[in-house]
UniProtKB/TrEMBL annotation:
Protein name, as recorded: hydroxymethylglutaryl-CoA lyase
Family, per entry: Belongs to the HMG-CoA lyase family.
Domain (Pyruvate carboxyltransferase) ranges: 35-314
Entry-linked SUPFAM superfamilies: Aldolase
Xref: PROSITE patterns: PYR_CT (PS50991)
Length: 349
């Protein structure tokens, strides 16, 4: 049914509600050319690495991203070290990283225990005379029962109930809350996903207090029409496009196309990771997030602003890939590094 509806969506773009939304958003897109990049490499990019990445490497990554002009850096995750050992040192990372005014450092907090740990750190007397490391948390759920069960061992409804309590307590402690929805366009267990369900979940996250909802193509199987269908469902459910973000993985090479499609439709926040770092332990074969370098390159070429130094982002992606023993997955990043090396060699002649 979803495939049939998507075919109708593409074939009858002028007459559908989706096309009406896109026409309405075109004016907004023309007026606001700044796209906020949420750099997720320190958390989502590194959390599934098998070899533990040293704390000093994570701290250097965060600090270097600041120099590149990134205004939002997802610094870590307060999850059980048993399940995500790579994030066990998040308390050390957020206490050792550089804190820059005007930059947000959200941390993933999936449950009440994680929030307890974060609040205990933020209440420490060590922050009495300096800026606290974060004023924002991120929470997550998924668009299918099977993925939610595998990821959090509960149903979607139970997940939202738990998250509502975490969100309320976080806001009571002056913390902003950002929401994630995983597998919005395809699930490794259930296949196609009902876009209307995504819209309803996004609405519930917004109603419980999330200021923004990130739509995650966790498996990286979506195409632009499918992401437009998800956006349409969210808007039809009453979620403003200003409150939505694009979180696209690149498993089938569609990540950048999906990002650009969502931005052209009015989305002004994009999650990305230098070097294309990332993956998903509950999604066999899923590759990393769409790389920051390609996103910034494409957005700048299309006339959007991000505030990010593309050359610096490419250097960071190249460095962190080498540091953790991975190939640099960013085509744009590799091209920029190769060009810079050639220019240096020519300058020596």
């Amino acid at each position: 049914m979803l495939r049939q509806s998507l075919r109708r969506l593409v074939a009858d773009q002028r007459g559908t509600a989706c096309s009406q939304i896109r026409r309405g958003l075109a004016t907004v897109a023309g007026q606001r050319n700044f796209v906020k990049i949420v750099e997720v490499s320190p958390r989502d990019g590194l959390q599934n690495e098998k070899a533990i990445v040293p704390t000093e490497t994570k701290v250097k990554l965060v600090n270097w991203l600041l120099k590149a002009g990134v205004s939002v850096v997802e610094a870590g995750s307060f999850v059980s070290p048993k399940w995500v050992p790579q994030m066990a040192d998040t308390p050390q990372v957020i206490q050792e990283m550089q804190i820059k005014s005007g930059v947000s450092y959200p941390v993933l907090v999936p449950n009440a225990k994680g929030l307890d740990t974060l609040l205990s750190i933020l209440s420490s007397d060590s922050w009495a005379t300096r800026q606290k490391p974060t004023d924002e948390i991120a929470i997550f759920t998924a668009a299918t029962e099977s993925f939610t069960k595998a990821n959090t061992n509960c149903t979607i409804a139970e997940s939202l109930e738990r998250l509502s309590q975490v969100t309320q307590r976080a806001r009571d402690n002056q913390l902003k809350v950002r929401g994630y929805i995983s597998v919005v366009a395809g699930c490794p267990y259930e296949g196609a996903v009902d876009a209307k369900r995504v819209g309803q979940i996004a609405k519930e996250l917004l109603q419980m207090g999330c200021y923004e909802v990130s739509l995650g193509d966790t498996v990286g199987v979506a195409t632009p029409p499918e992401m437009i269908a998800v956006l349409d469902a969210c808007v039809q459910a009453g979620v403003p496009v200003d409150a939505l973000a694009a979180h696209c993985h690149d498993t089938f090479g569609m990540g950048l196309a999906n990002v650009l499609t969502m931005v052209r439709a009015g989305v002004r926040t994009v999650d990305s990771s230098v070097g294309g770092l990332g993956g998903c332990p509950y999604s066999p074969g899923a590759t990393g997030n769409i790389d920051t370098e390609s996103v910034v390159y494409a957005l700048h070429k299309e006339g959007y602003e991000t505030g990010i130094d593309l050359s610096e982002a490419a250097r960071i992606g190249d460095w962190i890939s080498n540091a953790i023993g991975r190939l640099n997955s960013s085509n744009a990043g590799r091209a920029i590094i190769a060009r810079e090396r050639l220019q240096k060699e020519k300058a020596k002649l």
